[in-house]
Amino acid sequence: MIRHFSQTMFSLLSRIFSNPAFCDFAGPTYLLFSDNVPPLVYYSHLPIIIISLILGIFVLFKNKKGLPNRILFSLTLAFSAWVFLDSLFWATNRSDMIMFVWSLQILFEPIVYTSALYLLHVLIRKEDMPFGKKVLLAALYFPIIALVPTKFSLSAFNLATCLSEESPIIIYASYGLQILLTLWIIGFSVKEFVSAKTQEVKRQILTLTTGTILLLLAFSSGNIISSFTEDWQFAQIGLFAMPVFIGLFVYGIVKFKTFDIKLVGAQALIVSLVILIGSQFFFIQNNTNRILTGITLIITGAIGINLIRSVKKEIALRERIEKQEKELEVANSRLTELDQLKNEFVSLASHQIRGPLTAIKGYASMVREGDYGAVPKKLEDIIQAIYDSSDALTVVVQDFLDVSRIEQGKMKYEFADFDLSKLVSDVAIELKPNVERKHLSLSLDIEPSITVYADSGKLRQVVENLIDNSLKYTPKGSIYILVKRTGAETVQMSITDTGVGIKPEVLPKLFQKFSRAKDASKANILGTGLGLYVAKQLIEAQKGKVWAESEGEGKGSTFTIELPVKQ
Length: 567
Prior knowledge:
By secondary structure, the protein is an alpha+beta fold.
């Protein structure tokens, strides 16, 4: 391929530079600058070359080994070379030079398309293009190389119009290849877009493809129209697509971190603005306009520097936040693991402790009831204290077990229809000796035969817990238990006592885990702050509600459970 290309270039040069002729206008100075060239040509060529090369070189130096970086550099280099050759075409008056740069442009155009396709494939697939497809691209490009040095490329030169005459064969071959590669890009992008699994990937594909297609379509359409109309002013329009491609490409870089380049968006924007404004000096004739353009250029540069500094600070702050977020994520993951281990430990320990406590409570009850003979008078209080303490510790252990099961999602419920009125009455009767032992009065106002669909065991546990709480925190006075329907669909059970009451600031946190009033230990040393938390979780799991009310410290309290009634 390289040898054939060398032979092609030798044949091309020998054919073109044999008998040069000159068009009817003055030649350029410094190769590019001529009075014959419209200002639009310089404005559409020079800034585009500089912007394209800056982007390509900047991306390449950020990662010289990165495949996407090298492909993008090749794309911008090929495009810039084509634009530079086009500017020579406009400036020179030598027929041999015009035909030479024209032929080179024909060779460079497919390189822009193949580079764009190759780059898009690597960016979207995150891998190199298969070797077979590379061979196919080379095979498609080979006919162009073969045709350029022959009469089937540039057949003649029209000195009157100062234009080369293209053979229809090279026109159809060149533009046919460009259209084919454009369709390849569209088909590949559509396929990848449809198969993309996330919206973010879809947006990335859409952004990069849109920028590439806009560049190539505008690039092709301008040249195709100019080839058939022989009015090469149309080709200038296509060159302005490069800033659009750069803009969308930079957006893709910043938005999706395509090349992991920081500040590139702001830097590319400022550099592009400065170049576009500065390039106006090539065709401005009025001194006033030159001064205004110079002032605008200085202001834009100053604002741009401040903008880049601000963006740099923002990026640094964002990176610091992202780093802290990752550290917090790791710490949170570790805490979750520790919490899981804690729950498993608590569950295991509680199981191991509950057995001996149950045995102590059982033996104390049997001794107290006289199963092992008469209990001496002086031991009755001691046996009762052992029973009460083991009973209280059993409740504490049960609370820890319940919390562990709730947090691990292992709490099981057995729902069935049962009489709530009877359940509350039974619990009240069982706890009546404890009420009498504290010299409190117990009043019941229970509406009979109220059926609910719930877990009777869990609900009994909650009712016992709430009544037991009233006993612990009511040193004197009374406890009043009310069960009644509050509508066609709900029933409420409330326990009102004349105990120590609840401070207003404590009420909102009362049902939180490990939440206790500061002076609660004076009335109940063994309290853990878990009982009400467990009660709330158990009731809410049964589609009910539980809450507490109190007018303040020393004014008693009311705990209420609301459940749906079985229809």
